[in-house]
Amino acid sequence: MNEFLEPGDRVRLPAAPDWGVGQVQSVIGRRITVNFENAGKQVIDGSRVELEQVHD
Prior knowledge:
Layout: E1 10-12, E2 22-28, E3 31-36, E4 40-45, E5 52-53
Antiparallel strand pairs: 1-2, 1-5, 2-3, 3-4
C-alpha cells in the first residue's frame, strides 16, 4: 500500500498512534519522509512499516 503514497498525503502510523497524523514530505524508493504532528519529521522504511492513509 505504501507504493501509492505521494507528497502531501496525510497518514498515520498504526504502531505509534501518539505521533498523530502526518503529512508525507517525500517518497524515494522505500524511504518515506513524514512530518508528524507530535513526533516531527521521521523517515520510515516503507518495506517494513505500513502507513495508513487518512481521508478527511
